[in-house]
Write a structure and sequence with these properties.
Layout (H helix, E strand, L loop, with lengths): L5 H30 L7 H33 L8 H35 L7 H30 L12
Helix pairs in contact: 1-2, 1-4, 2-3, 3-4
Length: 167
């Protein structure tokens, strides 16, 4: 594969970091909005706000991170598996996108319709509280894994995948 110029890599890194900020910051925003307290009457508004942050900040951030990471791996010397830390980041990214798509997103999206129908009574509804609790617990775990991926991007542990190679 052809390599990207150093200036192109700098722009790619900038874009990648911007998307990571959207993903992590948006996920934190969803958690704050969802668990921020307030009145039972405001519950539906918080659920709608959390869904909007997810749809317009978290999802674009995750997709942008995935796409720019793919470009990084294909068009720079980092590759996919040349360094263990890059492989770990790929695992975390794919886990995050898939888990968010099939679990966190549906749990979050189920909240607003219930709170629209029941208002503050949604807090006594099993389906609502279960989805909200699962989203809070697993959303926190997701944020932790994303922060771990961010840390290993900076620290770059496990430099080479093959034993005995210099980094």
């Amino acid at each position: 594969m052809p390599n990207i110029s150093p200036r192109g890599v700098a722009w790619l890194k900038t874009l990648h970091l911007a998307f990571v900020c959207l993903w992590v910051g948006g996920a934190l925003g969803v958690m704050v909005v969802q668990n921020g307290g307030g009145t039972a009457e405001a519950l539906h508004g918080r659920d709608v706000a959390a869904r909007l942050v997810d749809d317009f900040v978290v999802i674009p951030g995750a997709m942008g991170s995935l796409l720019t990471g793919l470009i990084y791996s294909l068009f720079t010397p980092w590759g996919f598996f040349k360094h263990r830390w890059v492989a770990v980041k790929w695992f975390i990214t794919l886990y995050g996108v898939l888990f968010g798509t099939f679990f966190l997103g549906p749990w979050l999206n189920s909240l607003a319709p219930i709170s629209a129908k029941l208002g503050g009574g949604a807090l006594a509804d099993y389906a609502y509280t279960r989805a909200r609790d699962l989203n809070s617990i697993w959303g926190g775990i997701q944020i932790s894994t994303l922060l771990f991926a961010l840390a290993i991007s900076v620290l770059k542990p496990w430099r080479r995948a093959a034993a005995g190679q210099k980094s």
